[in-house]
Amino acid sequence: MTLRRSRTGRPGLLGMIVSQLRRRRSRALALGAGTIVAATSFTLLTTAVSTSQARTVGVVQDNVRSAYDVLVRPKGSETQLEQSRDLVQANFLSGIYGGISLGQYQAIKKMAGVQIAAPVANIGYVTVQSHVRLDVSRYLRPGAEGQALRVRTTISTGTQAVPGSDAYLYFSRTPIGTVDHVDNLPFPGLQAQKAGKSTYYVCWYYNSDRSEIPINGDGSPRKPLDLPEDLREWSPFNPDINATLTCRSGSETGYVDLPVSYPVLLAAIDPDQENRLVGLDRAAVAGRALRESDKPVWKTPRDASYYYDVPTVLSSRALTAGRVDGTVEQLDVGDPAALAKNLGGVHAHTFLNGLHGTPVGSVTANLDDGFPARGSLKARVDTDESWTTGPVRYSSSDGVLHPVLKPPQSKELWRTRSEQQFIPAVPEENKGTQFRTVTPHPGTVCVGLHDVCIEQDYGRLPPPLLDVVGRYDPDRLPGFSALTAVPMETYRPPSVVGADAATRKALHDAPLRPDRNLGAYLSAPPTLLTGLDSLTAVIKSRHTPDVQDTAPISAIRIRVAGVTGVDAVSRARVSAVAGEISRAYPGLQVDLTVGSSPAPQKVALPGGLTVREEWTAKGVALHILKAVDRKSEILFVLVLVVCGLFLSQAALASVRSRRTEIGTLRCLGWSGGEVMRLVVGELVVIGAVSGTVGTALAYGLGAGLGMGHAGPRSVLVLPVALLLTVVAGLLPAWKATRLGPLDAVNPPVSATGRAAAVRSVRGLAWCNLRRTPGRTALGAAGIALGVAAFTVLLALTLGFRGQVAGSLLGNAVVAQARSADYISVALSLLLGAAGAVDVLVLSQRERAADLAVLRATGWSDRELARLSLCEGALLALMGGLAGAVVGLATVLPLGAGMLAGRLPALTGAALLATAAGVVLVCAALTVPIRSMSHRAPVQVLAEE
Prior knowledge:
The N terminus is likely disordered. By secondary structure, the chain is an alpha+beta fold. A hairpin with a 2-residue loop joins strand 8 and strand 9. The strands form five sheets. Strands 1, 3, 11, 12, 13, 14, 17, 20, 23, 25, 26 and 27 form a twelve-stranded mixed beta sheet that branches. Strands 2, 18, 19, 24, 28 and 29 form a six-stranded mixed beta sheet that branches. It is built from 25 helices and 29 strands.
């Protein structure tokens, strides 16, 4: 092709550019490939960052709204552990009984910005009395006139199994009837069986009279007498104290009724606020929901007694876990005809307990089966005694929480106000390990409000009658995101699962649930709810007011008006409400729960069990968004620097390989400006072509990797390629103008010092690297850049996860961003390695004459290959180690807390990246080495 010439007779600039690109196609292709890699990598990396940021923000915004935004607790309720870790303890309400007054609640409710203020006032545990029925019909002997079965029971919960009470069945073919009176004394429904001319009260003595006194004080035979037994010498945990006898006859089903009691936590709420917060009224399954108008009613003497009638709603199921396992024994009763007499006499207890039994089978039932059916409003709630429990305290070591144990329960906890008896069916689980202090509150029966009291006066009003007006199902309450759940203990038990394989096996792969042990690690949430107006009827003291009397509220959950997420406006509104509460009542504990998320904590329980319990980490969403913004900004700058330096390397290497050409042009009269325009012009053409190819490549890769912003970002490849190529080429172009004609023609080698003998290929490789320091530094810089970028990006990824992970929302964000993070890290390493390979390939072309001379003097192709590979390996090793040092030095200022425990792994990863760089460079050098081996030395030297 004939080039258009200028007035001076030289080819025009455009013609010269085209001629150079055609004549040095391999150099242009190498630089173009580098440009494609740089521009495409820049686009993909920034797209990955943007995609990760968008997905992260989306996850946070989709899950940020929880049930309430602010939690107010009494002074001193925040433990040191909560404060140090910025957490809210799971099951925190179980140990708080008052501390916020009704006046404080009303004032907070009226504050500006408060949309909902829902209080919870824990009152104490009362018991629901019931029974669990165990069907033993299949173990009865067909046709037997009279027979007896014993069921030896065991109560099993998630972590323990304790012996339960024995349950007996007397089954007779002779009918067992009922009477309502004995010697004119009322005994409604008393079971009686005739045998001959005698009548035997077959179940009375075993169940109601263990005294075994045969005669009364006047010498008359002992008959049923409805007087309480004196059990002061007994223990409430003696299985025999609750042993029962069930009497059945005829063709009826054979079963035993095992008495059980369910401790339920009674709490007061504001019905209107609770309905607005969680829709409690929509969870009703029987009767009706609590109303704002529900008030306690004082029953007058005309109603036969003095007490308050308090409206309540009861959960549709027990929120405690447990199972009854029973071994059924067929008893050797001796003469079946004498069985009614033995059971209907004063020695029935000794007789029945002493019978030998033969195991014949087993039965099982869930304790939940005895809880009042969800559609029933008839629940026998005993309010004569109540109990409060303290919080669980912890020690901590190696990131694991260790609950502090309490002494075993005293039997005095379960005495009734008469001090001679215990409450019926004390739950056997209370013999287990204690984590909480349990305090009894016996009731007082007085005539009138203040006057004559029966038995001991404990200072309370007469025990109220809890009238169950409705049942509610906790599972019907609206759900909030599991990623940002805050403690909803008013209705749901805490979530605790095994943290290791051994614990999960011990728990039978089921979650650990609260049981009926009041001092257990887990406490059941409130199951019985009443209104705030009923507090006086339940906890008012007739003497000196206590904390529950003066400040009965345990916590207030607040929803702030106008909060839509964790944006600046929403955060300001929440902060304003929290700040106003803190200023008005400095003694209250105010926690911001908006954007919180469950943060699982490991807890070590007795018996070698380790569980994971979901505490609540405060402010997780805001923390995540700040970390994402910071990470995105750092990644963008780092990607820009990596791509710019890569192209600078490639352009500088390209100019260095053309020193002889530039020197020749200067000798022919080309000015520095013309040389600069020539170099920049070539770079512009290469950048334009590379950008066009890179656009298609970036779009295909982005779509394949699932990057949502790949389409619009791929259009930026062309301008980015042009900009990066030109900017990166300015420095080498300027350096080219500074070369004098003779300087450009002379080879760029360092002056030799004292001559030293070279006795190995490795020694010659090291000598060659030292002889051309500029080229060596340029080649090493490529690998150093890749390893340093890899180290910094990996540190940012690990540091981001360290900052964000630990809560459910944080873990979800980490999982969402993981693929984009890996793409960024991998591309940064590949980009640095590609830069080093590009420089080394151009360097091999520059040294073609040197290698040809060695080959002409007798060096074999194998020796030349070893020399080139040794140079490449040493170059990559130096660059990789330097990059590892620079990368680690760069990330150290990020802080030990952010990278705690990760520096050894990070160092190892940097060294592995260095090794990978060495392997990659050596593999890439095999291509030019093979190409040079096919060219004769004469041909190479002639071209030079």
